[in-house]
Amino acid sequence: MSSRIPEEFFDESDGFSNEYDESFLTEEWLMENLFQPGAEPVTESLWYEEETLSSDRIAIPSESFVPEKYEPRYAYPLIVWLHSAADGHPALGPIMNTLSPQNYLALSFKVANDSPVSSRSLATWPTSDRAIEKFLTEIHQTVCQLGSFYHVHTERIYLAGFEDAGSTALRLFLKRPDWFGGAAAFGTPFPESLLIPERLPVLDEKRILVGQGIKDPVSSIADSVCWTRIFKQVGANLTTKLFDGQHELTPEMLKYVNEWLMNSIYADNMIY
After folding, report:
1. Rounded alpha-carbon distances, angstroms, from residue 2 to 15, 98, 146, 154
2. Is the dihedral of CA 100, 102, 104, 105 positive or negative?
3. pLDDT tier at 115 (50, 70, 90 boundaries)?
4. Which CATH superfamily does the domain covering 47-268 fall into?
5. What is 254-267 written as a DSSP string?
6. Left (φ > 0), alpha (ψ -120 to 50) or beta: where does 163 sit?
7. How many helices (H) and strands (E) does the chain have?
């Protein structure tokens, strides 16, 4: 089931179309243009105008990623990747070249230098309702700018991140689940202050992926049990998965994101 972004998210002035002509998507075209694990690495491109960014932002758009064999007719899923605040050298290119160098458009955000972060906790991204609402506005503005250059499928926008950034991805998704196709979080502890069942929206089979290393000392198997109990309670289509590793974002995790997203896209295109 696809996630439809409400019309008010992208108005006519944004230059987006809600109609997608996919008649050219033959099996031969898909094999030639998508799903190429051996494709050459793609260099990320900086497309946003940095001088237009306000000084009181929650996050800064750092990079965009465009497949080398970009096809303008194809409406690409968009991955919005949030970098962990603890990542001293955030880079989107290596993440996307491992996840899939050909299947998606992507953009990344990092915490703004003046954001109210804590160096003593994983919760380094701002967590207040006001900050989340402001960040949603910033994402909207940035996606609109990206959409003026590239063909974004507005029903297939996914949030993703590791540790504190994964928690922020889930907070953003839970605040406005009608805006996004789903969210993926890795190495993210269970934040009890966030997940009070009475306050969660009904997710109606919305897709959520929660993963962690089996030896992760920060995000434990008990956290996975909590994620499962809460999200199933509100009707989410939740996938939890353990990977070989500790508190780290592994290539296997990124490759699984591609598998998880492609399964969703195939399901959307099924005729029953």
Report:
1. 21, 25, 22, 11
2. positive
3. very low
4. Alpha/Beta hydrolase fold, catalytic domain (3.40.50.1820)
5. HHHHHHHHHHHHHH
6. left
7. 6, 7
Q: What is the pTM of this model?
A: 0.77
* Of 183, 166, 191, 158, the residue nearest 236 (C-alpha): 183
* pLDDT tens profile 30-56: 555 544 433 333 344 444 444 455 557
> Is it the case that residue 80 has pLDDT exceeding 60?
yes
Q: Which of 203, 204, 207 is nearest to 184 (CA)?
A: 207
For residue 165, count other CB atoms closer than 10 A to its CB. Answer: 32
Question: Which residue in this structure is represented by tokens 């991805």?
Answer: 169
Q: In this structure, what DSSP letter does residue 217 have?
A: S
Average of pLDDT values for 98-104? 93
- Give the tokens for residue 233: 């309670």
